[in-house]
Amino acid sequence: MTQATERSDYRVTAVRLTAALLFLLLPARVLAHTGEEVAAGLLSGILHPLTGIDHLLAMVAVGIWGTQLGRPAIWLLPLTFPLVMSVGGVLGVRGVPLPAVEFGVAGSAAALGLMILLVARPPIAVAAILVGAFAIFHGHAHGTELPGAADPLAYGAGFVLVTGLLHAAGIAIGLIDRWPAGALALRCAGAVIGAVGVYLLLGLTGAW
Amino acid sequence: MAGVGDFYAGMLHPLTTVEHVLPLAALGMLAGQQQRSTTLRILPAVPAALIAGAALALALPAPPGLQAVTVGSMVALGLLVALAAALPMPLAVFAAVLPAAAIGWANAAELGGQVAAVRFVPGVALAGLLVVIYGAGCVRGLRAPWMRMGFRVLGSWIAALGVITFGLQ
């Protein structure tokens, strides 16, 4: 295979993958408007990380940053995140208060976007602790918003599963890092994620 | 055929409870991550322990910490899979026997009415064996690096669900 056709093959695959990922988001967006009817635990757990733009962007950012950092971060971050998030989730469902949860969630999108933009390479332990700290906030936010009628475990299974799949989506997107144009595109995506995070933060402070 | 329904009820029972099927799935993946000789010790130990646990349940009242063991094994086995830990043989077999016995006990403890234990319990043991064989087979068969990583991530999901289950009790 020539290099040109190989490249166009990659492009076709990338387009298909993007289309497929977007399709995954569509029904979730539509169903979210039916409100109370989707209160069944698993479904609401699945939807919660998808319908909150702060969660969605931060989770995809974890995957993208992981690919920029390469091994072992590419798998260490998605490995530690659900574990720490589950602890935060239990705190949330139990009603244990955690200060400034929404700031933590929006701040995680801002901070992770910045890391991607700067292609920041802290020591792996620092990256894991940073992402782990964010995971507590995300888990807590999922936990506190457990719908009254929903089964907590099914809800937990839903948000753990979808969080993991969003990491995988981030990693899949991050694979374009191997081409110079792709690396640049990732940094732009990081800038967008960071900007949305900052916008949400400003909204929370009431300054916007 | 009379009584065959009890066998199927036994097969279905551990598969319909999160804290039973997920530790078994984690156990299968853990078995697949071990050396071949260790895998081959774990696989038969699982149905044996399930039957032994069920036999204890028929003889004794349920101990108070039973659910803590099954849920705790979700966390412990999930973490071991996430770490892809190579365990020494006795420890690996212990890690298989303790949760499997607790799961067998918990399944048989709910027996009642018309269901015959002699047909129900072998169903539980067969289902457990199949889940473990399936998990081990997937891990041993799919050896691409990203797939190995995928199994470890699955382990961390199982451990996370264990933490949630534990925290909600």
Describe the overall structure.
The complex is a heterodimer of chains A (208) and B (169). Chain A has 208 residues and is mostly helical. Chain A has one domain (3-205). Chain A is 81% helix and 0% strand. Chain A has helices spanning 3-32, 41-51, 53-69, 73-94, 101-118, 124-144, 152-174, 180-205. In chain A, helix 4 runs antiparallel to helix 7. The longest helix of chain A is centred in the first third of the chain and has 30 residues, at 3-32. The model of chain A is unreliable at 26-39 (pLDDT under 50). Chain B is mainly alpha-helical and 169 residues long. Chain B has helices at residues 4-12, 18-33, 36-59, 66-83, 89-109, 117-141, 145-168. The N and C termini of chain B lie far apart (40 Å). The model of chain B has no long low-confidence stretch (mean pLDDT 90). The A-B interface holds A 75, 78-80, 82-83, 85-87, 89-91, 93-94, 152-153, 156-157, 160-161, 164 and B 18, 79, 82, 149, 152-153, 156-157, 159-161, 163-168.
Descriptive keywords:
heterodimer, A: 208 residues, mainly alpha, 8 helices, globular, B: 169 residues, 0% strand
Oligomer: heterodimer
Q: What value does the Rg of chain A take, in angstroms?
A: 17 Å
Gross morphology of chain B is: globular
Number of domains of chain A: 1
Shape of chain A: globular
Order of helices and strands of chain A: HHHHHHHH
Put simply, the count of helices of chain A is 8
Total E-strand runs of chain A: 0
> What share of the residues of chain A does DSSP label as strand, in percent?
under 5%
Q: What's the number of domains of chain B?
A: 1
Measured by residues with Cβ under 8 Å of the partner chain's Cβ, the largest interface is: A-B, 21 and 17 residues
Major sheet summary line of chain B: none
Low-confidence stretches of chain A are 26-39
Residues in helix, % of chain B: over 70%
As residue ranges, the low-confidence spans of chain B are none
The separation of the N and C termini of chain B measures 40 Å
Please give the alpha-carbon distance between the first and last residues of chain A.
53 Å
How many helices of chain B? The count is 7
Mean pLDDT of chain A: 79
